[in-house]
Amino acid sequence: MRAVFGLVGLVVALAIVGVLAKKQLAATRTPVPSLQLPAASDGAASPAPTGTVREQSQQVQQQVRQQMEGLMQQARPMPDDSK
């Protein structure tokens, strides 16, 4: 009897892992939206993003790096020490 419960528990755990794995694999196959380039200042339509995923990834990394550097250059407001 104890072996039957052990076997049933193992099958249930395997079924749960299988369902989770199936959901995870389905999520990786969904199409990723393309990167949005910043709008041109002259009002012209910006071109569609081109290049490989690697190039797009590098563009995103560069944008984040530039934004972080810009934020690091801003002066922090000093707290008031008056009591």
Structure, described:
This protein is mainly α. It has a domain at 1-29. It is built from two helices and no strands. It has helices at residues 2-28, 53-73. The chain is elongated. The protein starts with a helix and ends in a 10-residue tail after the last helix.
Q: Which structural class should the secondary elements be placed in?
A: mainly alpha
Which residues form runs of ≥5 with pLDDT under 50? Answer: none
Fraction of helical residues: 55-70%
Range of strand content: under 5%
> How can the largest sheet be summarized?
none
Basic shape: elongated
Instruction: State the end-to-end distance.
Output: 75 Å
Kindly state the mean pLDDT as a whole number?
80
- Tally of strands: 0
Compute the number of helices: 2
| Backbone CA Rg | 26 Å
- Helix-strand pattern, N to C? HH
Describe the SSE topology.
Layout: H1 2-28, H2 53-73
Notable features of this structure?
single chain, 58% helix, 83 residues, mainly alpha
Question: Quick summary of this structure?
Answer:
With 83 residues, the chain is mainly alpha-helical.
